[in-house]
UniProtKB/TrEMBL annotation, chain A:
GO cellular component, one term: mitochondrion
InterPro entries cross-referenced by the UniProt entry: Coproporphyrinogen-III_oxidase (IPR034505), HemN_C (IPR010723), rSAM_sf (IPR058240)
Annotated ranges, domain HemN C-terminal: 218-282
Descriptive protein name: Radical S-adenosyl methionine domain-containing protein 1, mitochondrial
Species annotation: Puma concolor (Mountain lion)
Domain of life (superkingdom): Eukaryota
One GO BP: porphyrin-containing compound biosynthetic process
Automatic annotation (TrEMBL), chain B:
Organism name: Puma concolor (Mountain lion)
Gene3D superfamilies registered for this protein in UniProt: 3.30.70.240, Elongation factor 4, C-terminal domain (3.30.70.2570), Elongation Factor G (Translational Gtpase), domain 3 (3.30.70.870), P-loop containing nucleotide triphosphate hydrolases (3.40.50.300), Translation factors (2.40.30.10)
UniProt GO cellular component terms: mitochondrial inner membrane; mitochondrial matrix
Membership in a protein family: Belongs to the GTP-binding elongation factor family. LepA subfamily.
Known role: Promotes mitochondrial protein synthesis. May act as a fidelity factor of the translation reaction, by catalyzing a one-codon backward translocation of tRNAs on improperly translocated ribosomes. Binds to mitochondrial ribosomes in a GTP-dependent manner.
Tr-type G domain sequence ranges: 66-247
Pfam families on file: EFG_C, GTP_EFTU, GTP_EFTU_D2, LepA_C
Catalytic activity of the protein: GTP + H2O = GDP + phosphate + H(+)
Membrane topology: Peripheral membrane protein
Location of the protein in the cell: Mitochondrion inner membrane
Listed SUPFAM superfamilies: EF-G C-terminal domain-like (SSF54980), P-loop containing nucleoside triphosphate hydrolases (SSF52540), Translation proteins (SSF50447)
Name of the protein: Translation factor GUF1, mitochondrial
Amino acid sequence: MSLKVGHLFPSASELASVLYLALSPQSLDDKELQLLGRTHSASDALQTLAEARRLFPGRVSVDLMLGLPAQKSGPWLRQLQELLGYCDDHISLYQLTLERGTALFTQVQRGTLPAPDPEVAAEMYQEGRALLREAGFRQYEVSNFARNGALSTHNWTYWQCGQYLGVGPGAHGRFVPQGAGGNTREARIQTLEPDNWMKEVTLFGHGTRKRVPLGELELLEEVLAMGLRTDVGITHQHWQRFASQLSLWDVFGSSPEVKALLVQGLLLLDHGGLRCSWEGLAVLDSLLLTLLPRLQEAWLQRAPSPGQGG
Amino acid sequence: MWTLVGRGWSHGRALAVWAAGTAQRGRLEPLPTPTRGAPAEFRAWDRLYTSAERKEKIDMSRFSVENIRNFSIIAHVDHGKSTLADRLLELTGTIDKTKNNKQVLDKLQVERERGITVKAQTASLFYNWEGKQYLLNLIDTPGHVDFSYEVSRSLSACQGVLLVVDANEGIQAQTVANFFLAFEAQLLVIPVINKIDLKNADPERVEKQIEKVFDIPSDECIKISAKLGTNVERVLQAVIERIPPPKVHRKNPLRALVFDSTFDQYRGVIANVALFDGVVSKGDKIVSAHTKKIHEVNEVGVLNPNEQPAHKLYAGQVGYLIAGMKDVTEAQIGDTLYLHKQPVEPLPGFKSAKPMVFAGMYPIDQSEYNNLKSAIEKLTINDSSVTVHRDSSLALGAGWRLGFLGLLHMEVFNQRLEQEYNASVILTTPTVPYKAVLSSAKLIKDYREKEITIINPAQFPEKSKVTEYLEPVVLGTIITPDEYTGKVMMLCQARRAVQKNMIFIDQNRVMLKYLFPLNEIVVDFYDSLKSLSSGYASFDYEDAGYQTAELVKMDILLNGNIVEELVTIVHKDKAHSIGKAICERLKDSLPRQLFEIAIQAAIGSKIIARETVKAYRKNVLAKCYGGDITRKMKLLKRQAEGKKKLRKVGNIEVPRDAFIKVLKTQSDK
């Protein structure tokens, strides 16, 4: 559990400014929890969830993982169904990615655990999102579902390429450092190691390790890749804030490869902007492999801007 | 051990197992095993030992023809040919007996690994017996009958052979094959049973085999131990007593057989010759019957075993000749040399090297092209029997189609490329030269002949334009312990072979002769045979011409689009199994796409096999928050770059790797 509620929190008022609370039980199956190396049980999780809802009604999110080794579709859907009985208005579904260096990765490599089956995972995802849709949730992003408007505005900033400051060891940020006189958006990373970070902050007043200015094309690429993760996609207005010279039509309107995707029903390009269809969202990363080169091409061929700087 | 120091190192390696000119490089002290990049250290030796001017020329005229014997040693692999040769050299004082002449042969790594007999150099030995001095010319032959042509040319310079048979193993496939070559050349065969010192030796049994299979009385067998030297002198005496001197005429105009040639980077081509008629010496102008080019002789001599220059070489003698030739193709095996303005009837049996097996060779990456090109050039300098054509594949880029004398030839070549030149190659499935007899007047005009050889499947003429298709066939000899006979016969039948003969060579072993389509054995027949017989069966084959065959061109399609790189020519009966195998391999190596892929193997419009690659239903990063974004963007952009390089068949992306997996030879050695 990423957060333990209950007697650790002296009073609700101290947490009044908390925007939302994310609980990551990750699974409601005791065996799976063991597999994942979690120290809590399913009933612990549900109990905590109930407590959290009491303290922060309407602002509690729950994570569930799919595609675990040896996981079967049926039982997992039942977990999800069960969760619907306890959850608040926000759920995240995450497919497991095995990261090198984790215990799970080693176990799968050794053969102690079977490798997750991507087919089964795909099925779980499709069924899961359909289930949530029926239960009144809006899938507003690849992995995030909300009802009654309980979107995570925090995360929305990422996908809409808003500005955000990352503070803390290893934190990422994206913003224009206007205070320092800059006018280009930068990608910043803070020093990774906590001890070093604290030392630097004490000595220099900040823990920023790296700053990379983002070129206009790079920024557009991020807008495209992040924006398409959401259900609304990229509206024409949104796009225009970043690409004053090129409209979505200019970039994607006449490409035969993009047309093929539109015809296949994976992508939509209309007065509402560019977005994925229900099916397309699930295979977004493949679509991006067609869209990104197309964007690059259009960018390089664009009409020179009348005296505007990059 | 031949303590030859003789010819220079040509580009570091002069040991080609397959015939075309090898001089065994040796020194007077045992050498460390040559490693890659060794050439430079041996250059110094060249200068010291090959400078002919330092040696006195010997007079070869003193050997009258009756005192000359030309013979060869033939045997199955590892039966003791080289050891026997060592002993003969010691006995005749050619090499010093006190030096520890172990069999520290200058073997190439590949030869050691495969246990192939190293082609030692031809040597002239002087031997005194019963008051006379004899000149015994030991002419060596390659160990494997992939090179039967080379063997036959070497044998044509002889009047007799020593047929060495292991006292425990007995007659093996190459014993038989080599015997028949000698028999066809009408040579006198002296059977020598070797390794009698070993515990499991059973010379009597082998004698009976020899009598049965070769019809040679057992009392003619000489039982020896080459390792210990037991009875070896008896062999020399038998050579003198039983093998006739050559029937030659010193007074006739020169007629010399080239039975071997090597390229030396300092001295040019050195040809091993056997004189059938006449005399040759420095200054003579000679002509090659094959190329018709004229060359002036710089040097002649004998091999003793070092190069020993002579004033002249006479009819009936064997030695070497250097005549300013620049390329081994100017002195091809089997060629006849004669004096300018005195043409003679060329010696029979000359053939231009005929490749039996073709393989595509491509660099792993196009950036390696030049490296591979130079490696192939260097290896083929000393091997005129490898045919080289430039070729290109849509999938694999620019490369070559090489022709080899056989599968072993090809495998050794490939291994040498990797080991000596550090060249990694993609070797595509070997193909054989099919033929077609054309019926279409237009095509006959285009090709300028009626019968064409098809090397590249893309050239396959369609049925309506052809009278018949032909495939090369070979006569294979298998010797196996009786308990595996059934399995062996099944294997042969599965390879479309027709049995020609079956006899018991003793109580335990059977010899089978089958006519095989060459195509059926080039890929993994030998391995399958070995594996089903626990390694006991032996196999050899010889060219047996062509036979009519029902060949078809098989296409591979992806979602209805033909993949040009994967067109193959197959026999009608095998089309389904080969088609299925290719479809399966493709299915495993094609990455999934946004739509389903139908893989099909087809002959004309008829689909004979299919597999499907399902579309993927999910391909999107689950979590994409602050810290993930940079990493994800990098990954996406890299993937997009990679995609650009992919070959597209229709709208299906096919990575190069997928082609390689389908096209390369499947045997993992």
